[in-house]
Amino acid sequence: MTNWIQKEMTLPPFSRGCHLITTHVLRELPELAQCQIGLLHVFIRHTSASLTINENADSDVTWDMNAALDRLAPENAAWRHTCEGPDDMPAHVKASLMGSSVSIPVSQGQLLTGTWQGIYLCEHRNHGGRRHLVLTLQGEFDRGRN
Length: 146
Hints:
Elements: E1 2-11, E2 17-20, H1 22-28, E3 35-44, E4 49-55, H2 60-72, H3 88-98, E5 101-107, E6 110-111, E7 117-123, E8 131-141
Antiparallel strand pairs: 1-8, 2-7, 3-5, 3-8, 4-7, 5-6
């Protein structure tokens, strides 16, 4: 039988950049261990931060990602929307480019990410604050498994 679980979670404030949050998400979803087959959807409820899945083995990847995003949407461009500071409009552009959600297949209580993949919060503001996520897990659950 297919079941749905939906939770909201709040991440602690992160500095500007890409931050691995896989363990934060897994900590909020102990029910994942009982999911035999399913799909986890993670959605961020903000327009100046984003989510992505990328390599989690080499920290240079996140540095290079941030550098590339800064080249695509620099703060010193001629933005019209500046009422929330010079990092706000570039953050909106970056969030639109990166996306507001990720979906990950689940099997036998595990996320089916690749060997070197993790879920990242991409904080595009200098001081973005706490970020709110919606976690939706749909799947077939083995209720007898701990």
